Predict the 3D structure of the following.
Amino acid sequence: MAETGIKPGLMQYLFNNHIGNIIMSLLSIDTNAKTSKNTQFGYLTGILYLAPADLSGVNYCPMAELAGCKEACLNTAGRGVFNNVQEARLNRSKLFNTDKNAFMRQLVDEIGALSRKAKKLGIKAAVRLNGTSDIQWEKIKFKWFNKDQTIFDIFPNVQFYDYTKIPNRSNLPNNYDLTFSYSGATGFDKYNQRAINNGVRIAAVFDKPENIPVTFHKRKVFDGDKHDLTFLNPKNAVLGLYAKGKARKDTSGFVIQGGLN
Ligand code: SF4
């Protein structure tokens, strides 16, 4: 099977669900401007983009309402403006919602292929599973060689990483790094504060590049748009990002206006 090929289970699913001609692989490899910068830093990156929040009928983003990020979601940034991209995200989500085992098996195949490709290139593999979702993957187990395992168990040498708005994710595997995603929305501050108090790395979105401050909540701000390899930054860093897609028009408070919060 070619690395972007369709598994028989997936093909059957697409056929049964009349999903038409949008045939997809699960991982996008170096397709966004930021992850393509990752290769310069020694990582080949695969990102899984699903339909965020409750767009697929299942809510993948339990904090989205509180954080006010649903409207401003990165789902609409970059290639996300195209209908076929949105349709592919929805189709992946439908497969995840209806046949988790088939989905996870396909994911294992694709991460295996990514790892082999990275090895050939002499670089490392990195995977971000929550490109446009906030799923607690550390809790998702599936049968693999007669054992219930997480995706992290199967690829101990792959660096996984994500942004999250869930402040209390714990017992993370060694190869899964999280960065808490700050929101300036009213009522979200207690979650921001919890992450800050716990010494978790934070990413904050500012309205314009020129409004990204030097320090934020007494922590040094690093350029979060330089590359996407969050785990290369110190744990107590703030990663400053600027608003993209619909986030540029955000009024929910998720995007920090004028560099102050
Ligand atoms: S910004 Fe993150 S948490 Fe918010 S809706 Fe989008 S994917 Fe979900």
Q: What stands out?
A: DSSP finds seven helices and eleven strands in the chain.
